[in-house]
Structures are given as structure tokens and as C-alpha cells.
């Protein structure tokens, strides 16, 4: 059984499957670190959240997590189960750009061909860097900024509500859109800007890379080694860095990294990920057998 969430229904299913003596693969998509700086009171609740998810994950014969970075965080938190990092992957056959996609995006959102458009994707939460995105829109009126994604504003702190309600002629909040419309945006924008402070992987970054976008991200530990600054993507740490790099990328003063970034993402095609998952399932079965069937649902191994 492959379990993907830590909610009550999944936990009840876990107990049922355990009693049946079946092996469990638990997918650890969340950590304490990526829960913080999200919803109202999330920081105060983070220690309890961490205890709960670790309790859930501890019932897996094998724990999957998207990256070596998230594996490290789980180990540091005290999880003792075997942890295998496997990317969530993306369907590269879907993420193929056409001129029509880009034109459709610009027409829908009112951009001219000459407009230089910076896009980002994420929930309305501080961790995603939304405050920096709005600050840069204010500081760079010559460029157009558009944010995709949505969250009920009653669930977020006042500073986030205030940012989302900011009225600027060069700033749009498009809300949630269907995958094909988001694909159009990846195709039609000039730069994908991902100022997130914490991720376990960041699927939207993989999507933007697959679409051959120019990419600017925050220089954070998860992307060390995997995405090289100045080779696959550009990286910055402060808004001053971002402003300088945005100018350099959009004005052509910095070389394009589109091709290298797109090539880098090929290894995360779902067809490649499928074989990794099969290997993980086989490992879970073997560990389950060697552990005597895993009939107990109490505590950790």
C-alpha cells in the first residue's frame, strides 16, 4: 500500500492495511520546515505538526520523499525508517511549448508582444516569497508581474492579505488556473521567478524548466548541486540580487540558460520515475518480509 497523505482517513487505512499484514510505502511530501510560514498560527503549530507526520511516516516499511534534501530533514528530525529520495516527476510529453500557447497567454491577460512578463506560481503564503514578489513589482514598474495560485485570504496573516490586495498597474494575481492554462503561461512569460524560501521539491519549478523558461530562483539548500547557478538557472538571495538578475536576464545582458535547464529536467520524466518507484516497492516488500510481516501498528520499528 502506497500512502500519500497524513490525514485521518489515510491513518485509518494505514491501520487496516497493517492488520492485514501488507507492506506499507509512506510518501513524505511534507516536513516541519515547509509547514512553517504558511497559514495563520502555522509556526506555533509546527512542533505538533512535526510529531504527527513523523508518527505517520514511522509506520512505513519504506518512506519515500522527493529529494535528498527532504530526506536529510526527516533524518535530522529523528525518523529511523529507510528513506528513499525519488522525485515526484512530471509528464514531459505534456510540457511542450508552441507559439500558440504563448500567444493565448498574452491575449488572455492583456499583455503586448513587447511587454516583459515575470511569472510565479504558488499558494498565497509567506514561505513562497510572495512578499518579495510584490516588493519587486513595486520596484520595477517597467516589467509586468503575474502570480498564479490561490488560497483563501482568511487563512493567511494580514501582511499576506495586504500584499495580494495590492493595486499596481504591472501586477496581477491570476488565481488558480487549469494545467493547460498554466502551461500557456510558462510558454508566454519571459521569466519564471521562484522566490520560495523552502521546498521539498517544487513541482512548478520542474514544469517551468521543462517548458524551456528562463529561471530565477532563491539560493536555498534544496537546489544546491541539482541546479547550478549560471548553468541551469540563475540564483539570488536578496531582493537586490533579484532586481539585478531580472534586469540582466530580461535585457539580454546575461546568457540564456533555457536549453541547459530543459536538458537537466529530462531525468525527472515520469517514465524514469516509474522504474525508481518499482524498485522502492520491491525494497518495501523485502523489508516487510524480513521484519516478520509488520503486524504491529504501535510506535516505530
From TrEMBL:
**Stored InterPro entries:** Glyco_trans_1, Glyco_trans_4-like_N, Glycosyltransferase_grp1
Q: What is this protein called?
A: Processive diacylglycerol alpha-glucosyltransferase
Q: Which residue range or ranges hold the Glycosyl transferase family domain?
A: 105-256
Source species of the chain: bioreactor metagenome
| One Pfam assignment | Glyco_transf_4
Task: Identify the keywords attached in UniProt to this record, alphabetized.
Answer: Glycosyltransferase, Transferase
Q: Which GO terms describe its molecular function?
A: diglucosyl diacylglycerol synthase activity
| Assigned EC number | 2.4.1.208
Q: Which residues form the Glycosyltransferase subfamily 4-like N-terminal domain?
A: 2-93
Keyword Signal assigned: no
